[in-house]
Amino acid sequence: MVSQTKQIVQDSLNALLEDTAFLPGLQGNDREQAFTSLGAILSTPNHVHKSFLRIALENGSVVRIPAFRVQHNNALGPYKGGIRFHESVNEEEVINLASLMTLKNALHDVPYGGGKGGIILDPRSFSEKDLHLICKKYVQYFSDIIGPDKDIPAPDMGSGEREMDWMMAEYKSIRPGQAYKGSFTGKSIVNGGSLGRREATGKGVYFTFRYMLYDFMKEQRKFLTNNDNPFAKTALDYDGKPLKIGVQGFGNVGSVAALEAFQCQYLENKVVAVSDKNVTLYNPDGLDIPALVRYTSLHNSDLPTTIEQLEEAGIKAEIQDRSELLYLDMDVLILAALEDQVHEKNMDKIKARIIVEGANAPVTSEADKYLSDKGVIIIPDILANAGGVIVSYFEWMQGRETQFYSEDQVYQLLHQQMKTTMDSILPAYFGDPFPLRQNCYIHSVMKLSTVLYKQGKLY
Ligand code: NAD
Fold this sequence. Notes:
The chain is of the alpha/beta class. It is built from 15 helices and twelve strands. A hairpin with a 5-residue loop joins strand 1 and strand 2.
């Protein structure tokens, strides 16, 4: 995966090097050199910080827990990215996720660079007090390098608003007098969090798909009809037709995206399948998503797994193995669980012709190429799942201004920002044969390259 990100960045630079209308001030040898510099800058992080947090656990033992903060690039603004709490965290993964943040923020014109944090632990095996101490220690160890104008962490897998509240409070104690509310995002509302932050990623994920198939289609049907681009043909095949949607993962991102699909008044779509770590639920006539959301909110976020539990939830569905979701008969597959879900070994079994990446990197590079070659539209992670960081930016601004937006205002601003990005990407995508991921990367790399060039960082 790491090499996939680096490879697409390099491919984007190679394409831009050939395009002499891009950065026309750079010609000949200077151009070659500048692009070599760009390759070096964008493929490596600025800093990799690592510490072993010394934690005196409640049970009396002392442990050392490895923790990272990677700062990939800050050409566009302070580093920004979540802190992942998971036993599988490793340095390479955190570096890759930080570089995806750089590209994501550049793509959506969010004035941040890319960063990411990670702590190698299974949060479920620690008490609340231990986790509180771990969060405080993380801030103490990294307090010199984070801060509202330097590097602004947020939640990621395994962390949430509770951890962000604790970390912000610790930052405030260590750095009194600073604009501490902007030091972390994803906080609880009472501690300066933004309304709509929790729903932002899932809403944005569904919006990218809806915008492509409804709003953009309405405006640009003629343009799509008049070119022989394979992805335009796929989009037109679905024009005005009822759509069957499957959602892998029914957590923060997946459940909100599924609910958006269920409630959408613009497209005739029904969610026929959802899955989580335990089960797939399938009903070709459509699942009652609000009932499933109610059920999961009462059952530790888990979907019903037995006939009795389905009855309790008031749901009609077939129960299948969790992995079956990917291969069911559907038009649109929203991936909102983990990375590397569609890969070399299962890519030929996927029936959906539109895939939306709610999770980071859920489709491997082999599967990406195989499916794109068959005209499957893949809306990539850096385009689709940016709702969280966009609303994090609104949270940071609200904290600085001490003025807070209503939930409707937040969603309006979120959709506006994502619409702007989609409008700048989709015409090129449907006009040339590159997959959407490549188009998004080119857009981000153009922005970063221009900024770095103008900042005099390329020689
Ligand atoms: P979450 O923990 O709330 O939900 C994850 C869901 O995936 C759960 O329903 C879990 O049961 C399910 N799951 C786990 N393993 C599975 C498997 N093998 N098959 C099917 N389902 C499985 O997490 P989330 O916040 O919804 O994040 C989902 C993904 O989106 C992650 O990859 C995360 O990095 C990414 N993401 C999240 C945000 C955000 O704002 N939450 C932003 C950007 C990207």
